[in-house]
Every structure is written in C-alpha cells, then in structure tokens.
Amino acid sequence: MTVAKFKVVIRREKLSKSTNEAPVCLRITKDRKVTYKTLLHVSPNYWDEKGQCVGKHHPNATALNAIISQRKAELEKETCMLALNDGSVSIETIRNKINDRFSFDLFEYADRYIENLRKNQKHATYKKYKSVIKKLRLYVGKGNLPIKSISLDFIEAYENYLMNNVGNNRNTTTVNLKVLAKLVGDIYRNYDLDETGNPFRKIKFKREQTERTYLGIDEIRKIQDLKLKLQSPLYDARELFLFECYTGFRISDILTLKWKNVTSGKISIRMRKTEKTLVVPMNDFVRSVLDKRRAVVENNGGQVLPNKYVFNILKVDVEEVNAQDALNAISSATAIINKQLKKIAEKVGIEKNISTHVGRHSYATALLTSDIPLPVIKEMLGHSDIKVTQIYAKVVDSKKDEVVNCLNKLYHG
Fold first, then answer.
1. Which end of the chain has the lower number of beta carbons within 10 A, N or C?
2. Would you tell me which CATH number, out of the four given (1.20.1070.10, 3.40.190.10, 1.10.443.10, 3.40.50.1370), belongs to the domain 217-409?
3. Is 0.85 surpassed by the pTM of this model?
C-alpha cells in the first residue's frame, strides 16, 4: 500500500493570458500517478517556489496563504479518510472525491473487492462475485461503469437482459442484482455520497419459491434397508446421505467432521458456509454410525484420534491446506457421492433427483411434519435468519394443498 504525497505548486503552463494568473494547486501523487486540485489563482511573479506559498510582497499574501493552508488541510484529510476506508484507493478515486465528481467507477471498486476476497481465501464468495461482474462487463461492453450511470432504468434493463438474453432464472437474477446492490451501497457509504441517490434503495428484490426435493420417511427407510457391500463406494455414499438426513448437516460439514467434534452425546461443528458454531445432540442413528466407525478403526488396529476424519473420504486435511484446495477437495468428493446416490435411487425405485443436499431438505421437512416449532428447526439447521427456515414450511403447506386437491378429485369422481 503506497501513501499519497502532497505538494502545493503553481502551474505556469496553465497561465491565463487575459488575467496573467496561473492556478495554485495541491498536487497529489500516488502509485506514480498525479492529480491536481486548484486552490486559487495568482500571478507567477508573486509565487514563492521554495516556501510553496504566496510571496510576502503580494498585498494579500497573508489572506491567500491562509486559504491555501486551510484548503490543503481539508484535502489531505479527505484523501486520508478515503485511504482509511480502502487502503488500495486509486488516484482516480481521489480525483473524483476531491473534485466532487459523481463518477466513481464500479468496475474499479469491484476488482479491488474481489481481489480482497481472494486474498482472504473466501473462495466461494470470490467465485460468485467474479461471475457476477463478468456478466455485467459483457453487458456494458466497456471497461468502466461510473456510479452515476447506474439508475433505475439501467437496473431494470440489466435485469431484463439477465432473464431474457442470458437465460438466468428469477432467483439467479436476484443473486446477481444483490451483489451489485452490495457493491454500489459500499461506494455510497465509503465515499460519503448522498445515499438517497442510490437506486437500489428503491428496489424490492424478487424471489420465486423453488421446488425443494426431499424424501419422505418411507423413502429414507428404503435407502436405509438397501443391502450393500460393506465399505463400497455405494455404501459410503449411502451412509453419508443418511447421516445428513438424520442431522441436517451440510455435506461439507459431514465430510470434514473429525472425532474431536464428537463429545459427550453431542456433535459440535463450525459450519463451513457461515463459520458459525452449531451444537446438536446425537440421535440413535447418528450414535450407531459413530460407534460403527469407531469399531472399524479399532478392529483394524488403529486409534480414534481427535484430528482424524469420522468419514475417511477426503484425501486432504482441510485445516492444513489453503481454502481453495479445501474447496476443490470437498467439491470433488461431493460430485462423486452425488453420482453414487443416483445409482442408489435407481436400485430402490425412487424417481426423484437425489443429491447430497436432499438429505438436509429431508431432515428439515421431517421435523416440520412432526410439528417441531420453526425456531427450534432454525437452530438445528444453523440458519441465521428464520426466513430461510420458513421456505421449508411453505413446501410442507404446498403438499398439504395437494392432499386436499387429491381428496376433492376423489369426492367429485
């Protein structure tokens, strides 16, 4: 991070022939780039180059130098405040700020934000933001996008483009717009712009309820009762899936579950997606799986060590590799498991498209149909917002409507 340098200079090359005065400017240098802010105008004959001030022989030297000092201090403060908010702030952003121009470049800000995500190893968010900005660049068709260009009309036109030209569905389009809203909002806040001018403040984001695939108790039992060869790929995939059905854990948290997370009848994990701690009591099925896993290790002459995985699927220790390698390992393992689950579904005659996340949906739906209160389900799933949990409630309600419709058809013949 380079620090901006300041110097008061007179720009003789800008001498006005009509007034015989040149602009006295604050020269700001950063990253070998320069910008100027005019403070006042004075004849070059009165300028003290060494003192960076108006010479004493000017009749209003004291007043003019006071103006220079005050404006210099104000501009230095503004620039330093920008640097505090964003250490990698560019000379272009400084120029826009000190000249009160409403032309901050969204792409410039987004590039720095995305790079910081990469440096902080937030790779899932990094990939999402990078994809969103790539689409926007293609739409804009040029290398810059001044913040003043982002109006309600612009947003509506871009929304239409995403849905009708790119082919994004309603929810994917909303995800894209929310990322842009976050970046635009950051610029307004970080650079003290008038937030009433932010067009995203007037937008209510739309979402469509998606059909969440889940398995009923009978379907889960079919998979549970399927005879499979011990420790085969299908067996391992089935065990991981059922573990998700009985805990509601995400597959990433099950794959990275270590023995140190299992203590005195409870499982305590730090969820990879939200980085929040989740503690859940064990049920009988979970306890039986853990006992079996423990017995396999010990019967083969091994030890159940705290830092070893419960499910020995991942080939790397996610705590010892960088975030990108950990994400790649989990994604690769999940893809293989999903292929095995499709084979299992075919074997037991389930026509639904089963994937690892279906286990989590099945867990949530089972709790709801058992009349477990939403706030309790929210805590068991580790949701930060109960609105996310309510999506499952809507799914259950829609199925209740289907039952009513079915009975009405039966009644009316």
1. C
2. 1.10.443.10
3. no
